[in-house]
Amino acid sequence: MCKNKKAIPPLFFPFYIIVSYLDNYESVTTMDTCATLFKALSDKNRLRILGALLTEEPLCAYHIRAMLNVSGATVSNHMALLMETGLVQGEKKGRWMLYHIPEPMKAHPVLIWVASTLEKEPQIGQDRAMVKKVACS
């Protein structure tokens, strides 16, 4: 056990943020919600998706597929998990599925922490540039 708070790494995810996130969920158990949240945030591709959605929203599945260089099925699986957490919402527009971060979530401590962490990653800048080159038509 660490008694010195200064020894905690700067990327440590504060417990109060998790508790505040879980307080919004009444229909599922805390353990299930916590596991789903950590699962969603534990994959680099899902973090890349969140990084792109934080500035380039909404994005269609084709944008995400091109950005990650993965199959449509893989994108679908990633997005299903992100939507299950409530971090992302999807909306069908014609033949495209558009994804965005809901307004209330943009001010949520979880996404604020993710955004500040991802902003330092060169890959996120490259992803944003890639998204601007790809058009959903």
Percent of residues in helices comes to 55-70%
CATH fold naming: Arc Repressor Mutant, subunit A
Rg, alpha carbons: 16 Å
What would you give as the CATH superfamily?
Answer: Winged helix-like DNA-binding domain superfamily/Winged helix DNA-binding domain
Strand order of the main beta sheet, please? 1-3-2
Element-by-element helix/strand order: HHHEHHEEHHH
Provide the structure class: mainly alpha
What is the strand tally? 3
Average pLDDT score: 80
Strand content: 5-15%
Q: Measure the end-to-end span.
A: 54 Å
Overall geometry comes to: globular
- In the CATH scheme, the class would be Mainly Alpha
Number of domains: 1
Q: How many DSSP H or I helices?
A: 8
Low-confidence stretches: 1-12
- Assembly state (oligomeric): single chain
CATH architecture classification: Orthogonal Bundle
Largest sheet: 3 strands, antiparallel
List keywords for this structure.
Arc Repressor Mutant, subunit A, 8 helices, disordered N terminus, 137 residues, 3 strands, mainly alpha
Account of the protein in words:
Strands 1-3-2 form a three-stranded antiparallel beta sheet. The N and C termini lie far apart (54 Å). It has 137 residues and is mainly α. It has one domain (25-133): Arc Repressor Mutant, subunit A (Orthogonal Bundle). The chain has helices spanning 15-22, 30-41, 44-53, 61-68, 72-85, 103-106, 109-118, 122-133, and strands at residues 59-60, 89-93, 96-100. Strand 2 (89-93) and strand 3 form a beta hairpin. Mean pLDDT is 80; it is low at 1-12. The protein has eight helices and three strands. Helix 4 crosses helix 5 and helix 4 crosses helix 8 (122-133).
